[in-house]
Amino acid sequence: MSSVNEPIQTVTNQNQLPAKVLDVKGLSLHVGDKCLIDNISFDINQAEIFALVGESGSGKSLTSLAVMRLLPEAIQVSSGDVVLDRIDVFSQTESQMQTIRGKRVAMIFQEPMTSLNPVMKVGDQVAEVLRRHLGLKSKAARLSVVELFEEVGIPDADARYDWYPHQLSGGQKQRVMIAMALACEPDLLIADEPTTALDVTIQAQVLDLLKSIRDARGLSILFITHDMGVVYEMADRVAVMKQGKIIEMADKNQFFSAASQPYTQQLLSDAIPAQELKSVEDKAPLLTLNELKVHFPVKKGIFQRTVGHVKAVDGVSLSIAKGQTLALVGESGSGKSTIGQAILKLVNQTDGAVTFIDNENVINLSDLSERQMKPLRKKIQVIFQDPFSALNPRMTISEIIREGMVSLKVGEPTKVWQDQRIDELLSQVGLDIEAKYRYPHEFSGGQRQRIGIARALAVEPELIICDEPTSALDVSVRAQVLKLLDELQQKYQLSYLFITHDLSIIPSIAHQVAVMQKGKIVEQGTVAEVMHNPQHDYTKQLLASAPELIRKAISA
């Protein structure tokens, strides 16, 4: 077995400029006879931010894994080279690569919660990198970690060293991941969708942090994303991947002003949904919240006595009209999803009323038992954020859609009628009727979200709660789902409570907007009133935190 300390083989190419940190030349990857990456080439210079964009499955993340040499065993490098700061990555032994990873090249992953060990203090996780690569002892490692935490903007860094991941916010967890990646001062940082799961304000902070570190350290960044607003904010150069090939590459200004490929032009078009405002008619409310409160008890001590309450929803009043959409926006933890759960009676409200108009009958959902609520569940449905975990993996698509019809006694109780209805629903959401025989894992994220919409429509609802239904989707798939929701609303006069932190989609989907902060509604009104003439400081902060490309579109 090779020693970790054996000399690393380097490329002595006199034509390679010293400023070139990464050079990918003619890279092709195969699994069996299937080509995953097809002869791609690009390079990244010192202190450059290079954005690699494209839809899911285009090969972006596989490219990053090839650079790190972390490809699954089944995937073979059929041709090409990856040269990292004059080191030929594919000629190194695994023990040499263990030295290179973290020290020469480091990676930030999309979801910080799954990337951090939940039973290990965050400071110790970063210190482990320093001990492994730099040989620092415990005291010196702790001092270095605290300095890193301060550099990435984690407050009270010395105390946060001893915190566990669950004690940190999403933005703070991502800052820990950035500190871990920067610990050994790598030449190249690979950021794989590092802001997808973050709110606009936290996203703005993380992007500003990465740019400031780039400037301070001369760090090169390979930034993988499908968010064109982030690309506009961050990139020096941009490459577009489609089906394993790089189809276009240009500097940022040329990319956004004169993209040459139709696919790239479509990506840019989908990135900023149509900003044409919907006409708002004065309609009677379908659902009304009156001073809704949801407080969760905080228990401490051996007897678990209640010592206080978390006011997740604190006196919220809203109404949603028939056939219209109310967009509920705000940061994570503001209480948006809790409102949706309270409407569905998935959490117990503390006070206030939730009233629903059913055939001109005013029903206070707050007073209903679960048995009394069940008939109304066909009237109020939900589309969840994550299409991957929202569908039962052991059920076929037919069984998933049929389940609601059977349990809520919708339509004729015959398999023939239900099969016909399932076929109609799949066609309505743009899926082939043969999909009903397949399982969720056989579909892409966008297709699964369409299945979730079909499941919600199966019981013929009047109100659908859309809880971040597009946040996990590529821009092109997002555009398709938003168009589908709009068409269904016009056809069936559906009402939506659309929970989101993506400000760019609000003009294309919503009639009214409510802005939520710390359990309270701080501003509400029409899209034009809230987006074009915000009154509350928090609303202004949200709009100011959006990427410049989004701000320009909203204000146009």
Overview of this structure, please?
There is one protein chain. By secondary structure, the protein is α/β, with parallel strands linked by helices. Among the domains are: 20-271, P-loop containing nucleotide triphosphate hydrolases (Rossmann fold, 3-Layer(aba) Sandwich), CATH 3.40.50; 389-460, no CATH class. The chain is built from 21 helices and 20 strands. It has a six-stranded mixed beta sheet with strand order 6-7-8-3-9-10, with helices on both faces. Helix 5 packs across helix 7 (170-182), helix 8 (200-217) crosses helix 20 and helix 15 crosses helix 16 (445-457). The protein is globular. 42% of the residues are buried. Mean pLDDT is 88; it is low at 1-5 and 12-18. Belongs to the ABC transporter superfamily. Residues 22-268, 298-543 form the ABC transporter domain. Pfam families: ABC_tran (PF00005), oligo_HPY (PF08352). InterPro entries: AAA+_ATPase (IPR003593), ABC_transp_ATP-bind (IPR050319), ABC_transporter-like_ATP-bd (IPR003439), ABC_transporter-like_CS (IPR017871), Oligopep_ABC_C (IPR013563), P-loop_NTPase (IPR027417). Keywords: ATP-binding, Nucleotide-binding, Transport.
